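Q: Structure tokens for this one, please.
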Amino acid sequence: MNLTLKIWRQEGPAAKGELVTYDMPDVNEDMSFLEMLDVLNERLIEGGEEPIAFDSDCREGICGMCGLMISGEAHGPERTTTCQLHMRSFRDGETITVEPWRANAFPIVKDLVVDRGAFDRIIESGGYISVNTGAAPDAHATPVPKQNADRAFMAAECIGCGACVAACPNASGMLFLGSKITHLGELPQGQAERSARVVSMVEQHDEEGFGGCTNIGECSNACPKGIGLDVISQLNHDLRQAAGRRR
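A: Here is the predicted structure, written as tokens:
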């Protein structure tokens, strides 16, 4: 298949960026999107040009590093990570626009690479579990109801890719934040700092420059792990509970 790519090129954070057009002939439909970019970069290097900078790591849909805005959709037309998106999802002759995540909290580093350190700082602001358990207990020593365990596992599937932020018209990180709050909030070990944790993490979220949530739902639709809006409801519930205790 033959494709036309319009890719965002930007030398650095302070540089002016632009969309640059590249012709991509003979693309194998079984390639992943990142493999296609690898082929383009090999061609650019052979021609003495600067390769396109983009993030990737595991390429197995686990690490969340590979997020790109593809023709206006976070991770592209399929509900998956960019590294797991295959070229058979596109039509022969199609023009594809490739851009980085667009959010004030995710400043561009170079080309398609953004700094998602804001997510790390939000997690760091949540602190740690301070319950003194002594020696490592048996795995089954603290009973957890199956419903709670299943919900904690669901929330823990969040890989921090940032698609929720990129898809949200407000650039809100509430789906990510709600996942982290729900993950620990459903487990006994997470109860000691539950109120302090949610307050601290929401404050850090706002300080990083993420927008507010207006429950449009684009975040959940774009999430490659299918995390639902109920984690945002859990976040709001915990925040109200924490505010009540502070009075």
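A few notes: The beta strands are 3-9, 18-24, 69-70, 73-74, 95-99, 108-110, 113-114. The longest strand covers residues 3-9.
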